[in-house]
Write a structure and sequence with these properties.
The structure holds two protein chains of two kinds. By secondary structure, chain A is of the alpha+beta class. Chain A contains 14 helices and 18 strands. Chain B has 18 helices and 18 strands. Chain B is globular. The chains are: A alpha+beta, B alpha+beta. At the A-B interface, helix 1, strand 8, helix 6, strand 10 and helix 9 of A face strand 9, helix 8, helix 9, helix 11 and helix 17 of B.
């Protein structure tokens, strides 16, 4: 395995051009913390962006930050935290689930596009990427977007780059929206609800005017594998439904009262304040009960995105059918399903159920031998798959970048 | 016409009768319009300085018809220009002399309202406002609110990625759409996304939104709806200097407050609006901010106090706070009528649409003032100040020889200044034909080629809405060619796979 550690965007162009000339696919990494996501790649050359780690410009009053793609996410987060700002889409720390060292780089965060609980209110990574400089599979540096939020100049290529897992272009620098952190937060907690009823409670909360910024449900069985704040919270082994409110203190208190009343039919409401609230949402975001180091660490994990109101029924069916565990976020619109080890991670039945509910499923964690044989990303219907491939070729016609990561390569 | 459109294909024009007959076979009855008089309403959109009758107008009313029309045009090599309500301010729906104008006006049905999933599934010809009205009884609304929302279609909103006053807090169209049914130029019908928060695969919905009708024709859209905030109140704050108003905007945002809307008007705009709607605007200020806070009333009351203190700290000279819905609406009346108000004090005006970093507001205003003197044309400024989106209105008289050219040159200089100050050519109106030839101010040839390659993935023959967005059209085969990069390579020893 050869690793090419680039120093600047020009180096990236050179590496990609050389790779094109020699038909050598490249694996693109920052810190490499998400290499376990996707199919094992057909290459022995790694383009390492970790030295492109500068913060180019941080302008708190403009609510933007421009950073090189290899900048460590943790460093950038503590920088913006010093100005009481954050990435509102709550990027997930995948190291908990994957057992990797650290939560990687800014480029990895955008390429993976894994947003946390606040996605229901603030949008995803794609909604916070304002501009990018990148090197395409033609070996050309291009830019897209800009450094302002309101911009419709040309195609919005940022949307494609976010969540493309490095298969379209090598991002070298990105401009991201940052937002003021909420002054306070509270979590309303219902207990003992079954998945479908909990889904209804979350639907009621999200359909209320109380500006809910997190809506998760943890069935009682998942607390056995939790180790942190969720373990303490779920010590009784009863299911917990969590609803988060954020904002200025007076507003949060007012809305908490109103929302509690609106949910009275679902049982008694308990309240968690500030730190007690924020620590559990970090664990929901990172799916801590399925942590690599925990009791479910060897189980394959599916990340399922579906219409939120059908999440409860879908998750319940998946948990029963697989004898596994599920955790709901996004009011039911995101389901994490851990299934007992099987050679195919139950891909067939899981995807059948998920498709019937109008969703799609990504095998976010599985041993390498499973990822060699099972489609990690949800297979698309013919016309859509073909368009996706044409889009890919329009950036990278020789499939130099992360070849084989998103689409299972059939033996040739 | 200063903007050159692709040359008309005489061979296509010679076949006009046969083409009309073929289209009538697909869309029967009155769905095909070919008489010059009846095509008149379609010859321009909201950018009225540019007019061009199309070869023929087709108004299908089913996805299948759209598919057949496109397939026919694809096979026959005929250009197609899609159109919604025709309110584009950048000429996105300007017809082509040898092109079919494909109007989606008959797609007027809301297909499904799903309160549990908080989405509306709608046909593209439904107006923006009609969506909010359809869900209002349950307390919901559709957040993006372009000022043309009574007339503009949701399909056009997706094509242009429309914004509006409230997008500062609630996002633009792209942040509020989840899925669509789209017909490609080949006639192929695809469904992208749906009621889930994210699509599988690449974010194609994200790229289709704001693609200005160049990638496909949308026949169904799934949009997110939100619960209406419990209350909204507005402050109307006057400043003796534009710089102080700019500073106030920066400090409000810097203090972590994201208002529902934050608008600025300069003196000429204030005077024009006040003379038109009598909203009670102060006439002795250089800049007026309208700042709206929305949410639960305890929150709004608290934020009003904070914003008032910030404004005072910035030297505000007047400050009124709305105490009723009627008063809040009155504050907005002048701002919402600013364009027609300016229309009363000048025979014609050009509405520009650049975005700058908020901090560059005073600098940009000073530049616009200088340019106004240079071109000897008046200008009134209204801004979505919260997100730095400028709408300078350049006043001119089309009957005076040379004035429109001067006005356009003035506008181009403003947009160049926006790019120079770190901003962009268009914040919400789109590139269309209006800003097409300015694209190189912001993008290199490499940047634009990458965008056009993406177009090729959807429309390899370049038949859908050609002549818009891109200043130079390239053939897809040419764009797809790999460059042979000569010279020494820094990594000659890259391992072979």
């Amino acid at each position: 395995m050869d690793t090419l550690k680039v120093r600047d965007a020009r180096d990236v162009e050179e590496v990609v051009r050389t790779a094109i000339a020699s038909e050598q696919p490249l694996e693109i990494i920052g810190h490499g913390t998400k290499r376990q996501i996707g199919h094992p790649m057909a290459t022995n050359a790694v383009l390492d962006l970790s030295a492109l780690n500068a913060v180019s410009a941080y302008e708190p009053n403009e609510l933007i930050i421009t950073v090189q793609a290899g900048a460590p996410l943790a460093d950038v987060q503590s920088l913006i935290d010093s100005k009481n700002q954050h990435f509102a889409f709550e990027p997930m720390d995948t190291s908990v689930l994957l057992g990797a060292a650290g939560n990687g780089t800014i480029g990895g965060m955008i390429g993976a596009g894994l947003a946390g609980p606040r996605r229901i209110k603030a949008g995803g990574a794609r909604d916070h990427l304002l501009g990018a400089h990148a090197v395409s599979g033609f070996g050309d540096s291009f830019k897209t977007g800009g450094r302002v939020v309101k911009n419709v100049t040309g195609y919005d290529l940022c949307k494609l780059l976010a969540g493309s897992w490095g298969t379209l272009a090598v991002m070298t620098e990105v401009t991201l929206k940052v937002m003021p952190k909420p002054e306070s937060e509270r979590t309303l907690m219902l207990s003992g609800l079954d998945d479908v009823t909990a889904n209804r409670a979350m639907t009621a909360a999200l359909g209320s005017p109380y500006d809910v910024s997190g809506a998760a449900h943890l069935p009682g069985s998942v607390f056995g594998s939790a180790t942190g704040a969720l373990k303490r919270l779920g010590a009784a082994g009863r299911a917990l439904t969590l609803l988060r409110l954020e904002g200025i203190a007076a507003s949060v208190a007012d809305r908490a009262g109103s929302l509690g009343n609106a949910l009275a039919a679902f049982g008694a409401v308990e309240m968690l304040q500030d730190d007690a609230s924020s620590s559990i949402w970090a664990e929901v975001r990172d799916v801590e009960p399925f942590a690599a180091s925990g009791a479910r660490g060897l189980w394959p994990v599916w990340r399922i995105v579906c219409p939120p109101a059908s999440g409860g029924a879908l998750g319940q069916a998946l948990a029963r059918g697989s004898q596994g565990d599920v955790i709901y976020d996004w009011g039911g619109g995101l389901i994490w399903a851990a299934v007992p080890p099987q050679p195919d991670a139950l891909a067939g039945p899981v995807r059948r159920e998920v498709e019937a509910a109008g969703g799609h499923a990504t095998l976010i964690r599985a041993p390498e031998e499973i990822r060699r044989n099972v489609e990690v990303f949800h297979p698309q219907a013919g016309g859509l798959a073909a368009l996706g491939q044409r889009v890919r070729h329009s950036f990278d016609p020789k499939i130099i970048l992360n070849r084989g990561r998103m689409l299972l390569m059939t033996a040739t | 016409m200063a903007i050159m459109m692709p040359a008309a294909d005489q061979a296509v024009l010679n076949r006009r009768d046969a083409i009309v007959a073929a289209l009538r076979a697909i869309v029967p009855g009155e769905g095909v319009i070919d008489s010059a008089a009846e095509m008149l309403p379609y010859e321009s959109d909201g950018l009225m300085a540019y007019r061009q009758p199309p070869m023929v107008v087709v108004l299908p009313d089913t996805t299948e018809q759209v598919s057949k029309v496109l397939k026919y045009c694809f096979e026959q090599g005929i250009k197609v220009v899609p159109r919604g309500s025709g309110t584009s301010l950048s000429g996105g729906a300007l017809p082509l002399a040898d092109g079919v104008l494909l109007g989606l006006g008959k797609f007027k049905r809301i297909r499904e309202i799903d309160f549990d999933n908080r989405v509306v599934v709608t046909e593209p010809g439904v107006t923006n406002l009609a969506i909010s009205q359809a869900v209002a009884h349950a307390g919901f609304y559709y957040a993006p609110d372009p000022s043309s929302q009574i007339a503009c279609s949701i399909g056009g909103n997706v094509a242009e990625n429309s914004g509006g006053v409230h997008c500062l807090k609630y996002g633009m169209t792209t942040n509020n759409v989840l899925g669509c049914e789209i017909v490609l130029m080949s006639g192929e019908i695809l469904r992208i996304g749906g009621k889930a928060a994210e699509n599988s695969g690449y974010d194609l919905m994200g790229i289709i939104t704001g693609s200005e009708g160049l990638l496909g024709v949308i026949t169904e859209i799934t949009v997110r709806i939100l619960q209406k905030p419990e209350t909204a109140r507005a402050l109307m704050v006057g400043f003796a200097e534009v710089e102080a108003a700019g500073e106030c905007v920066a400090r409000i945002i810097g203090n972590g407050i994201i208002p529902g809307g934050m608008e600025m008007m300069d003196k000429p705009a204030i005077h024009a609006a006040e003379a038109f709607v009598h909203a009670g605007y102060p006439l002795d200020v250089e800049a007026l901010l309208i700042i709206e806070l929305d949410g639960p009333s305890v929150e709004v009351d608290e934020l009003i106090k904070r914003v008032e203190a910030i404004a005072q700290g910035c030297g505000s000279t007047t400050c009124q706070i709305s105490t009723s819905e009627a008063e809040r609406n009155l504050f907005w009346a002048g701002r919402k009528a600013a364009f027609p108000a300016v229309g009363r004090i000048s025979p014609d005006y050009l509405c520009m649409d650049g975005t700058i970093p908020r901090g560059a507001l005073p600098k940009a205003l000073a530049r616009i003032r200088d340019l106004s003197a240079k071109y000897d044309l008046r200008v009134a400024n209204v801004f979505h100040a919260g997100d730095g989106n400028l709408h300078p209105l350049i006043l001119y008289d089309a009957n005076q020889p040379g004035e429109i050219e001067r006005a356009e040159a003035f506008g181009a200089d403003i947009l160049r200044a926006c790019v120079e100050f770190g901003g962009v050519l268009t914040g919400e109106h789109g590139v269309g034909i209006e800003k097409r030839d300015l694209m190189p101010e912001m993008f290199s040839e490499v940047d634009l080629n990458q965008q056009q390659r993406l177009k090729c993935a959807f429309d390899a023959q370049g038949l859908l809405n050609p002549g818009k967005v891109f200043p130079t059209l390239h053939r897809c085969a040419e764009l797809g060619r790999m460059h042979v990069h000569a010279g020494k390579l820094a990594f000659p020893d890259l391992p072979r796979f």
